[in-house]
Amino acid sequence: MAFLSNLVNGISLGSIYAIIALGYTMVYGIAKMLNFAHGDVIMVGAFIIFCGAQYWGLPPAVCILLAMLVCTVLGMTIEKLAYKPLRKAAGLAVLITAIGMSYLLQNTALLIWGANPKVFPGLFKLDTFRLFNGQLSIKPETLITILANIVIMVALTLFISRTKMGKAMRCVSEDRGAAELMGINVNRTISVTFAIGSALAAIAGWLLCSSYPQLMPTTGSMPGIKAFTAAVFGGIGSIPGAMLGGVLLGLIEIFGKAYISTELGDAIVFAVLIIVLLVRPTGLLGKPIREKV
Amino acid sequence: MNAKKKKLIISLSTYAVVIICFVILTVMINNKSISRTLKGMLIPICSWIVMAVSLNLVVGISGELSLGHAGFMSIGAFSGIIVSGWLLNGFQMADTTLRLVIALIAGGIAAGIAGTLIGIPVLRLRGDYLAIVTLAFGEIIKNVMNCVYVSVEGTGLNWGFLDANIPGKLLLNGPMGAVGVEKISTFTAGFLLVMFALFVVQNLINSRSGRAIMAARDNRIAAEAMGINITKYKMMAFVTGAVLAGMAGALYGLSMATLLPTKFSFNESINVLVFVVLGGIGNIPGSVISAAALTILPEKLRFLQNYRMLAYAVLLILVMLLSNNPLLKAMWRKLFSRKNGESGEEMRA
Amino acid sequence: MSEHKHRQQTQMVPYPSRASVPERDLGYMPVLECNHLGIEFGGLKAVDDFSVVMGRTEIGGLIGPNGAGKTTVFNLLTKVYQPTHGTMMLEGRDMGNMTTVDVSKAGIARTFQNIRLFNNMTVEENVRIGLHNEIRCGMFSGILRLPRYWKAEKEQHEKTLELLDIFDMAGMADERAGSLPYGAQRRLEIVRALATNPKLLLLDEPAAGMNPHETEELMENIMKIRDRFQIAILLIEHDMNLVMGICEDICVLNFGKIIAKGTPDEIQANPVVIEAYLGKRKEAEA
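^ inputs. structure came back:
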């Protein structure tokens, strides 16, 4: 039973990583940059939901929608102000700007909400599921997380493969110059990518804090780094890769903590990442790159 | 003036500026005309300068983005603390200077060994994948350091992994880190370490090995076709960087009474990277200046109170945006070329 | 390892007797011998059954339409790609287990179709990279500035200027390689390749982007290099004046296969070659 419960928890945690990783991987695939501020957008989303539920007394669904809206606007604004002017600059300059953005978001949150951890409220009051005569109990948040992940994955896959914007995204990710020549509005495509990634970050913020209800300005950093790891693990730039990487990472973390060592949980996660990258240098589902001579 | 002479002048003037700063600061310390906060920051500033110079060797000269440099600093710091505590408690070595020198060397060696072990797998990867693996190693080091217990008993050392029940006087106490460290680092030692790091890195760059390192960075395929063993030279830069970072760590660790393993987190690696980028990729004197300035800056911004780190973040973004603005870049180049007849160096990221 | 050595000793190539090698080179080991060399990329035979012999001081030409696999041959010879078929030998040494670095040390140097200089370094530093395995000085001598370092630096400097002088480029030694005009960059690549002290020099479209006057000069210089260093040169080139002017032996590739081999006169008269370049009327209509 402990195994099953770990399995469910692992998939749930992995689903959160997967949703965050989607934000990283889409932005990387299309804008070719590591958006280090992504983890902090999650934190902002969680704080908006917290305020909505705790202070403003909004209904749960409205809280989530509001958070998605705020994060979408935030993500697009960040892109427009900080990243767009650097589109032709060296990769490191963009990376440092993204790090600056991450500091900015964290410290703004610190000023608004303070450093003390807030207890995140459960939005939907549901009973814990009990299976096998109560031997296996599954929290409702866990199930919601897994469900949300599946819905998002299906929706995003359909969006990318069926819609015109999805096609444009694939084009830009393959060859930005050629896409531009074909009349695709690259700036708008990148903007939409940031919007989707940030809206997903809001959902991830909600799911993360539902399962681990402690909210502070630094809440987003570590899950952010791990989700980024998950994106690389699955093959950065690949949407199914982010999903697979996220879920696997969650499973490894939970099982590592349960069966090997609680203290070394993070070390195990990163060690597995390193081993995978050594065997498959571009991640699980990444395409090998060949340099033309 | 030919390129070679220009390089020589730049590297000599770097030494000169560091020496002048050291002399002025020493005089100020003797006159007691220096603020307490600044005085307390002098040794850390030296460590961060060495960190920045060594990371610039890896990122700027060798062209590999490393996001785990603080991991080597951590290894150096705790090795230095262990060796110093061991020599003091096990062998009653009272001479602090000698103990510091041995601790610095031990920190460098330990970090160098770690750098070699990590470098072998890491340097097979490229670009962002290499970056993420160095990040992963940095986090692993931090995590593992959290679980290590070391104590000194007689002239021997006892080790415990995830096990605090070891006899003797504890030097390293798992997640509590190092406690009751005897502060033996001095500003003079910091200054000498900075000079040493500059000497090693600048001389390395301007030698056959350094040129091979840069060739591997600029064009891997051409460098290989010229008979340069890419892995060997990437490794050389990576391990040299790790050794210097370890020494910087030992200096830093032995200047603090207590030191937590979580101090050397991803954020510190990123901080050092910020020093390197703002000082100029591949620009060694730039790293020295930016590391010193950016370590002092948050302190100087203290009057802003809670807005301090916010201001730092905004400043960071603005500097990146302005320094990469094509209009300003063109203006700068115009001004610069009139004086020098040579366009500003642009390095690949 | 021991097996490899064994093969090196026993598989000595007989001295060339065929007419494919100039008469003056007959008494020497051929610098390059390829037997049925080939490479497949996922089923596509990019180069197939490539067999050539090159004499010690021969100037050879490799021509063919775009996409015929010429640069792939260079990439095979320098082990950028590992051949899937066949063998190659450099002065009788089997190259099967060599890496790109080994090949360079063993004596094959190349230039690239799309120039690959170290753009941020000076002209002199670029040539010094070529001298990497010729004039050595270890890391510690470099850092500690031991006498060995100063000696090596001086030797490198002198040798660099001497090599740059071939193309009258000694005056540009301190310029940034990336800021040179196109033609000078091509010449610098040749100098850099020569610095590795090769036995065989591979030139990938050395005259690309040069005007007729520059090409004329380049032809003279290629001959000069051959005479002075007594090395073999294999070049890929689309400029037929250059190819027919200086190559002693020409090999025509099409779709990865050798369709003709011979002297410039033979090649020019070969109907198969004309067909490969211009197409066959009947087939084009069909």
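The first strand of chain A starts at residue 118 and ends at 119. The interface with chain B takes residues 28, 34, 82, 85-86, 88-93, 95-97, 99-101, 103-104, 106-108, 110-111, 225, 228-229, 232, 236, 261, 263-264, 266-267, 270-271, 273-274, 277-278, 281-283, 291, 293 of chain A (CB under 8 Å).
thumbs up if we can close this ticket
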